Amino acid sequence: MARLMEISEVKAELEKHHSSGFGWALSCCGRDPSEAEEVLQLVYLKILDGRARYGGESSFKTWLFAVIRKTAASERRKTFLRELLLNAGAERIPKPQRTEDPDVALERSETHARFRRALAQLPKRQQQTLQLVFYEDLSLQETAEAIGISVGAARKHYGRAKASLRGLLLESESNYGIEWRRQKNPSVVL
Amino acid sequence: MELNGEDKRIRALFCELKREEENTAPLFAKTWDSAEAEFHRTGFRRRRFQSSANLLRFATAILVVSLVLAATVLLSRYLRLPRQPEHDHAEQAAAVAPRANSEEPPWSGVVPAKREAGKPTERLVAIRRSVRVNKLTVASAGRAPSVEQDGQSGLSEWQSPTAKLLRSAGDELLRFVPPMNECAEELKKFLANDLN
After folding, report:
1. What is the ipTM of this complex?
2. Among residues 2-31 of chain B, which lie with CB inside 8 Å of chain A?
3. B37: which chain A residues are within 8 Å (Cβ-Cβ)?
4. pTM, rounded to two decimals
């Protein structure tokens, strides 16, 4: 009965953090929604069969994010090995990136698309740090706990990520300006 | 965390991203239910696998411990082996010498008047033992004396170096008169085997 209560409590907490957990899973899975959903389901399965237990050392959200990150990493490794074994010697077909999908790109604003592209160019740790700080509103301490690094390292990633993102956005904006001017006046040579 | 203009801009971009992605998020009930169904489907299989994995771990631990114990015993035996022969020689020499002395009293010059009829070769066996002891002492004297031995031996034990040269294997034989009722055949046999 005590275990049932525990599960019901955990379930209520999971429901509360479901959408943010999905956002974090998206970040860990390269913004692939189906993969993120699968990872989230695996996380819930881990919690149900007791492989992942919340011990109360950190906040529930931080713990959940750490479990999601580890599960996503493990799934990525498994997928990589499966592909390696099955397609050994065969030519690998590159997976189409969601950001380059024309239908989706049409729906998105140009600024938003540029932001997504810039974010995708950042190293994994920097992406995760920005995602947790700006998307999930976590502190640097909580971010470090969720990613599994020290606070100093998290602060370093945070600073570098912001600088890189700013540079990438400026670059894309200037490219956009050049392209826009070319469209207006094709004879301009820059 | 205090946000400056740049941070605010990044936050705004992330907020927009979040809003968009929240629309694509699956329902919690759907994800939870499929996880629960998967748990009920694979629960028994997982538990069985875990128990067999535990058994395997236990067996491996026992195997490793027994291997370590066997290796330790073998190694200790191997390390003890080279010392044994020296001990054995010394023990043998120590064991033979007193027995020979106890069984072979110094010759008094008196011929025993009566001998046991059932054991005619007893005397010859005693002579053979004393000859063996002599051989051992000669062999040990022939070795180069170590520094420790030199230190231990005193002046009282000093012997002339030429005294050893005067000894022979037949000394013990010449120290007594052979009994008249001794079987000549056995005496010849003994001389042929041991003294020549």
Report:
1. 0.72
2. 6-7, 10-11, 13-14, 16-18, 20-22, 24-26, 28, 31
3. none
4. 0.53
